[in-house]
Every structure is written in structure tokens, then in C-alpha cells.
Q: What sequence folds into this?
């Protein structure tokens, strides 16, 4: 069974669809919770599923260092290890090598870095990144790429894009030589904030042929306008019959804007990280539960929310947990935020299917602009 | 409806029974998870219930300081605040004043201390302790007492015991003057490691009349032998028709030993605190998941355990979570440990009902002595 993506509806440039993986279908636009170290922080897998997620993201960089890809394979793969029987996408490790590892050196053959855990010298080549993701059992693997923080000189962007393209070719070859079993490999468009580089990258990847295409090197320091412009340049150059994944994005607003530009997939630590820091996402926008205005408020975050924790716990209680540094606060708010992201993508899918995405965008922007409930 | 306790069976000195509270029945011997700051750390209340708990313990000292007793009352009481619709016992704050507060001074009228949160000077009298617990809506309130760390000179033990007895009388009076609504107030036997003081304390409390009697001032530095000797002295002096609560205890072995000496109720942070530190309790005894022996072990902690987390996650995964400081490790191990404590008390109740408690004690001691599963 080959990986397949089908579009179910389009509305302008916005798309809704579905792809099928060996671990079940994924509805798009899709938001993937981040399960960095084989866990979405603080949440049991049943809770993550209950938020509505079809797929989550695992981090190759973290898992290769601890507990190790061969060990996870020996234990039956990442799905079994973390008890998540649904789809998993793993990144290639390139982004974390840039952001976490010490003393890294990029060579043609591979990237060499020091582990942030124990300082050990580790090599990661495109072939090894594919192998690791295969050992993990990822339904969707990502090619190894070089991601450059913005702003950066064009010469650096071009060099990284060309290297990423050569690594894409090696990744594709390594992937093709293994047993695919319905798994997919996505290529990653690089090129920073330079439209011609982005287009050259996209064309090069399309020539190689991937099951899906990601936009990498965004949400790395550029303005929202630049990010949107890069999507506007790149998305139309990608094949319509393959999913398009905007890596590491973003706020609820970013997601709406990117869907409006033809993006199908997202991942971001924002819902869980903000949850750990006392911030909830609801249809009222971002609500800071540290704020003393909540201390005596018996109302839930959103009484109309179908996710139990958003509806059943009082703001006063959530405020108390956050102020008291109680881990249940992080647990509940992480789940509430993931549920909101899933509610948002589900509503986006419905709006596209009914060809009212523009109205939906306007309605939701108006709702967010109103802000949180007034004080009682 | 008055608080009532009935014995269902006895086997030697060991008892099993049940008491009824305004928030449901509690089977004894009972273990109460500790919900210090209106939360059992990291666990949603449904999870705590799923471990088998009928009742949990809340801490007056913490809750009076944050978020405040009047605030919780305004929000509908502690049950509603923390979404635990079952029975709650609150301590009186005396123990935490001793162990956590700064610069405390004990006077006849009250204890005066500095809050560990903001350094504010706070007074806690026996009457205020009863009032706070009433505002919280505790099904079982505890009298304010003075708890002395062991070892201590007899003169200090006697002074604290006599003060606790006078405070018991004032607590009783305050409790009687309020609306009881089926709620209970327990007296606390003090007297350190001195048998005559323990007996004098018990007699004084019985003269006042309480719905239940606690043994306080134990598990505060004395040996297990001294603790057991004090139970041996005190329990027979207490009325058979009232529950007996050994405060702050203990290990699974402590619980078995205390039940064998006529104790009905327990609370302890051990299952949750040890869970946060990577130690699991199972029928194999305490298992340290930090140990590298678990890193490649696909077996669950205990494949015969009915609690899902103890049966479904591999030791390798739990080891990984603990080594990676992932909060899900603390969450899962806390729940697994609470479930084990509940399984233990349930098995104790069944053994007493079938009058085979002595055999049960021997069997379980043998099982614990075998230790954890051998390496594969």
C-alpha cells in the first residue's frame, strides 16, 4: 500500500484532504502535537488522542541520542514504545542540530555535532537520518536539511539550499533502497527569505519526487509578513496532489493564514509550551491564567468548549494551579491548548468543505479581536 | 445524617469496615492520597478515582495560605474547586506549621507563624482551624494539635500533649457550635514515644468524644519499632466503634503492620513523591526505574496488574521518561503507586473479611522478599 493523499475540497487556494498512513488516516489541514522525547509533555497518549490529533511529531535528534534509534527498534518501534498507535511524522534532526547541539560542523557528507546531553561527538548524514527514522518506524520521514536562521546573507542561504537539495537526493536514494511499507519521505524546501532560491529549491525537489513537500527554514526569526510571502511564492510551485507541510508553525493566526495560502500540515510546541507557562488558547484568543483577574472566577475557560478540561474546571482553579506551580496546571492547559488547535483545524476543514473559508477567517478574526470574556 | 462507622469484620486485632460521609462511603482500611494544594500532584481527579481511592486528604495549612479558605468557600468548597466529588479529610495545619512555616511561636491561644510563601504573620487557633475546614467543606476535619519531632524530652512531649488536649476541647466546642451536616471531627492522640502520655491523651480525647481518633506525632523521626509499640499501646485504648487513623504513614509494610495493630486509615505522600523520583511500588516491592537494568526491558512493571499504566507501558519506556525528566514519568508512576496502595488496602480488606489476614501478611512479606523480576 503506497502513501496516498487526496484532496477532498478546495476553496480558493485553501485545501482540505486526507492522507492514509500505515497507522491510520490523517485529515488535513492537520496540526501535529510535538512529542519530542517520545512523549507529548505531561500527557498520556489517550489524552493526546482525545484532543483530536490524528498524527504527532517525534524528534529524530532527541530520540537518536536518548534512548537511541536501535533501542527503540528493538522495543518494537516508536508507536509501540510510546503507546501511540496512530500516525507519526519524525523530523530529520537538522533543525535541532542547529538549535540545540554544541560545536556543530557541516560537511558535504554529514553534520558533525556534540550531543547536548553528554558532549559526545555524533555524525548525522542524510542516509543515517533516513535509517534512524526507519528504525523508529515513522509513517512520514523528513529528509535531512540545513536550516539557516534569518536574517542571513544570500550566499549562506544559497549554499544551505543547494546542500539541502543534494542531501534530498541522497535521502531519496536511501529511502528507495529500504522497505517502504506505505511510509512516506518528504522533501524540504529551503532558501530563506529569497524567492528565487525558494523556487529553485522547490523545482529541484519536485524533480526528485517526494510523497510530500515541507517548507523549512521559516519561523526562525523572520517577520510574519516574510513568512507569508515565502508561502505565497512556494506553495503554488508545489504539486497540488501532495501534502504541503509548514514546519514549526505556529500561532492559531499563523495557521489560518497559511491554510489560506495552500498549506496542509503544521507542527508547533506552542500549545504545550504555552500551556506549561499558564497560557490557554481558546476561541477568545490567548488567556493568561496567571492574571489575578481569574482568582475568584468560577467560570470555565469556555463553557461551550466540548473538551472536558476547558469546560469543567473553573478559571479560579486553573489560576490556583498555575500560581502554585502545580504540575496538574501544565497538564490541563497543555491538553486544553492541543484540543483548541484540533478544534481550529477541524473547523477550518469544515469551512473549506463548505466553501466558506473566507467568511470563517473573518468570523474567527473578529472573535479573537474581542478578546477574553469580560470580568463578571 | 450523622457520620457513622461500622465494622464489617475483624480478624484478631485487624478490622475492616466502612464509614459514610456526605460525599460517599469509605471502605477501611483506607489509604488517602495526599492532595496538598487542592491537587494530587500531576493527576486529574478522574485518574485518582481510577486508582481506587474513596477519600483524599487536603492540607489546611497550604489551602489557608493559597488560595485561601474563604475564597474556596465562595467558589463552592474544596470538592467542587478541585472536582473531587468523593470524601475529603483535611488535616488541621498543625503538622505543616511545624515542618514548613518560619519563626513559629506556640501560645495557649493559638500558633503564630510566618507563611512560607510570603513571610506574612498568620495566626491559627483551634477555633480557626475548625472554621477553615468547615469553609473548605471537609467531610472529616482534624483538631489542631501540636506535633513534636522525636526524639524529644518527656517534659516537651507532656506539655505538647496537654496543650493538644486543651485544643481538642476547644476544637470540639467550635465544631459542635457549627452546622455539622454529617461531617466528622477527629481528635489526635499525642504523647510522643511515651506510653503513659499516649494513654492519658487517648483517655482525655475519649472523654470529649470524637467521631474518630488519630495517632499523631508518629513517623516524625522514631524507629519503626517505636511507632509499632505506640500503636500497640494506644489502639486498644480507643473505642472499637470509631475509626482509627495513623497520620502520615507510610510504606506498604508500615500499613500492613499498623492494620495488624488495629488501624483503619492512612495517608502518606510516599506513593506520589516516590513516583516523582522514579520509584514504583508493585507486588515486587519498590522498583527503581532509574536503574539501567530497565533500559531495554520490554516487560511492563507487572503484567498481572489491573491498573492500565502498570500493565501497558514497558519498563524501558518508563525508564526513558524518568531519565529524560519527562513529566509523564512522574504522572504515570504516581498513578501506578497510588493504584498499588489501593490494591494493597483492598487485598487487606478482603483478607480480613475472610479471616486470613495472618496468612495474607506472610504471603505478601514473602512476595516482597523475593524482590523485583529477574533480568530477562
A:
Amino acid at each position: 500500500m503506497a502513501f496516498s493523499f487526496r484532496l477532498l475540497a478546495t476553496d480558493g487556494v485553501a485545501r482540505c484532504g486526507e492522507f492514509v498512513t500505515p497507522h491510520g488516516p490523517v485529515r488535513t489541514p492537520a496540526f501535529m502535537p510535538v512529542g519530542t522525547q517520545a512523549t507529548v509533555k505531561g500527557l498520556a497518549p489517550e489524552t493526546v488522542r482525545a484532543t483530536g490529533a490524528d498524527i504527532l511529531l517525534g524528534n529524530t535528534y532527541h530520540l537518536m541520542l536518548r534512548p537511541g534509534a536501535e533501542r527503540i527498534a528493538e522495543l518494537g518501534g516508536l508507536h509501540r514504545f510510546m503507546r501511540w498507535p496512530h500516525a507519526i511524522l519524525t523530523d530529520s534532526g537538522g533543525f535541532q542540530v542547529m538549535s540545540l547541539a554544541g560545536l556543530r560542523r557541516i560537511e558535504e557528507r554529514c553534520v558533525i555535532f556534540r550531543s547536548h546531553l553528554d558532549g559526545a561527538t555524533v555524525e548525522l548524514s542524510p542516509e543515517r537520518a533516513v535509517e534512524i527514522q526507519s528504525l523508529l518506524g515513522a509513517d512520514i520521514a523528513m529528509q535531512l536539511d540545513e536550516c539557516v536562521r534569518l536574517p542571513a546573507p544570500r550566499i549562506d542561504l544559497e549554499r544551505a539550499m543547494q546542500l539541502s537539495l543534494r542531501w534530498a537526493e541522497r535521502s531519496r536514494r536511501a529511502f528507495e533502497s529500504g522497505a517502504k511499507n506505505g511510509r512516506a519521505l518528504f522533501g524540504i524546501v529551503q532558501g530563506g527569505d529569497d524567492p528565487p532560491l525558494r523556487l529553485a529549491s522547490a523545482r529541484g525537489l519536485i524533480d526528485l519526487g517526494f510523497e510530500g513537500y515541507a517548507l523549512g527554514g521559516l519561523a526562525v526569526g523572520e517577520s510574519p509578513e516574510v513568512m507569508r510571502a515565502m508561502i505565497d511564492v512556494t506553495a503554488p510551485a508545489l504539486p497540488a496532489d501532495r501534502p504541503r507541510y509548514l514546519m514549526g508553525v505556529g500561532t492559531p493566526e499563523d495557521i489560518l493564514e497559511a491554510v489560506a495560502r495552500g498549506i496542509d500540515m503544521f507542527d508547533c510546541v506552542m500549545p504545550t509550551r504555552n500551556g506549561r507557562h499558564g497560557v490557554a488558547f481558546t476561541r477568545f484568543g490567548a488567556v493568561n491564567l496567571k492574571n489575578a483577574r481569574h482568582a475568584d472566577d468560577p467560570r470555565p475557560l469556555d463553557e461551550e468548549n466540548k473538551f472536558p478540561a476547558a469546560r469543567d474546571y473553573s478559571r479560579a482553579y486553573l489560576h490556583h494551579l498555575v500560581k502554585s506551580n502545580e504540575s496538574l496546571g501544565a497538564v490541563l492547559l497543555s491538553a486544553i491548548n492541543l484540543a483548541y488547535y484540533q478544534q481550529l483545524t477541524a473547523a477550518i476543514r469544515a469551512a473549506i468543505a463548505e466553501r466558506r473559508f473566507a467568511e470563517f477567517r473573518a468570523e474567527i478574526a473578529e472573535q479573537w479581536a474581542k478578546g477574553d470574556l469580560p470580568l463578571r
Remarks:
- The first helix of chain B runs from residue 45 to 50.
